[in-house]
Structure prediction request, 322 residues.
Amino acid sequence: EFAIIECGNRSPLYKKEGTISDKFPMSCHTTGLSCIWQTHCYNLEVYFPDKQKFIILKLLSWLIISVIFLLIVIISFAYIVKVIVKQKKLSEMKNDFINNMTHEFKTPISTISMASEVLLKADEKTSQERLKKYSQVIFDENNRLKLQVERVLEIAQMDKHDFKIDKKDQENVNDIIRKTVDNLCMEHCQRPVDIIYKLNAENPVIKIDRLHFKNVINNLIDNAYKYSGDKPKIEISTHNTPEGVIITVHDNGIGMSTETQKQIFNKFYRLPTGNIHNVKGFGLGLYYVKNIIEQHDGSIKVSSELNRGSRFDIYLPFGNTN
Prediction:
């Protein structure tokens, strides 16, 4: 709004009709009109009744764009930080895997080397029992090395999606579990272990890949044994649901925190054991287990508490298809 006002008595010479009252607001913008030839002094006075609102409306679009741009910058920065942290953690896990793999390969290679050296130095006086003993050591360590290499290669095939399972035959999971666990404990258990079987599934026959299912049971029992104390106690049970079979492995080991349970099936991840480094492995076992179970159209879940053991539940459906 605007008006031309006489300087002395502030009477309007001209005003915008219908918008300005007789008393023009004092909080207005004023400038002299020296270009008007009059004996009196006149000012041009301009008043903005909604100046702040007008300015805000004009700047609103720019403010919105600025806020959106700021949010994009903040979100991008947070995402970059998250990716960097994740990559750093993955790099540390890979380095741990390489160190563990080097150690796991070095041990059987060193044992084979020493046993071979003994055999090379053998003469006619060396007893056959001694020769057989060191030959058996070489054979066992070679098999151990072979199994480790095969495990790494299987994981590599899984990552390339070239890994396939063969589910041609119907198998009795109760029988496979009992035989697998008995053989494992006979060959590898160096301290007494209490195995409790509760194989109550009345219909335990499902279509599975026998070899890889045995590897799944081996991995779960091996982990339960390694992460238990001096007196390991492992309970293995099965029961039916209308759709399939539930297999449960429950131990009395050191247990896991909630955060560890979220990562336990990740590749290269290993359960932290503080300053104790006597637990061997690559951090691939449970990653392998999860992949095999999922290829059988099943699922696996873990529940655990620190110092109270862990429990793994595997579900395998009757009518699974590849």
Q: What stands out?
A: The chain has a mean pLDDT of 78. The chain has three domains: 2-49, 55-159, 170-317. The first strand starts at residue 2 and ends at 6.
